[in-house]
Structures are given as C-alpha cells and as structure tokens.
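Usage

Read records sequentially. Each one opens with the input sequence:
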Amino acid sequence: MGNHKAMIAMAIKVANREGLGGILADGVKIAAERIGKGAEKFAVHIGGQELGMHDPKAPSRTQSWPPAARYQMDATPGRHTAGLDLLVFGNI
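and closes with the structure output:
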C-alpha cells in the first residue's frame, strides 16, 4: 500500500497472468492452495469468493441487516451486484 506504481504493475501482471500475477489471478483460495505451506489459513474467502472490503458487522444504508448475515445465508456471499437483501426485499 502506498506505492501506486507497484500496484499498477501488479494489476497488469494479474491481467496478463505473469509471474506472481498468474498465481493471484484465480482468486485468493486457489492462490493459497498453489502457494501451500499453510497459506490456506490466511486466505480470507467464503467458498472461494472474496469478501467485500467493508465491516461485516454493521448494516449499510441499502441493507436491512449486517453483511455478516448475508455471508451466512446468501448463495453468492461476496458479490456486490446482487445479494439476499436486494433479492428478497428489493431495497436497492
């Protein structure tokens, strides 16, 4: 964090599947499996789907319940394009 040139370079490596970018391109779960040596313990995901970068304990203005509940009940817990709240209550 803080090195914008390195972040852009890594994003290009991921897009082109070059070097470490090739390992990271398929997501954190598969990357941890490829790296091995206990990396699986540090891979943050639910069923292979990365989570959003927000506090899962607090509801937002568009959700009637905290994201933590959605992570437990939704078939696609990490998606930002659809969710249990949207599908059930049409809040958005």
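Summary fields computed downstream for this record:
- The chain is about 40% helix and 0% strand.
- Residues 4 and 73 are 36 Å apart (CA to CA).
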